[in-house]
Amino acid sequence: MRPSLRLFGIVLVGLLVLGMGVHYDANYETNWPYPTGDALETDYESHVGDRTFLFGTVRAVDRENATVEILVETEQGELPLTVGGVERSVQPGGAVQVYGTVEPDRHLAADRVVVVNPAGSSLLFKYGVSLVGALLVVVLFFRHWRFDTDGVGFEVR
Amino acid sequence: MAELLTHVLLVYVLLTVASWWTDAITARWVPIGMAGAAIPDLLKVERLVDERVLEGLLGVPFSYAPISSLGGVLVVAGGITLCFTEYRRRVYGLLVAGSVSSLVLDGLRVYADGHAGFWLYPLWWRPPTPNLYVTSDPRVTVVAVLAGACVFLLDRYVFGTAQ
Question: Transmembrane segments in this chain: where (chain B) (predicted)?
Answer without folding.
Answer: 64-84, 91-112, 132-154
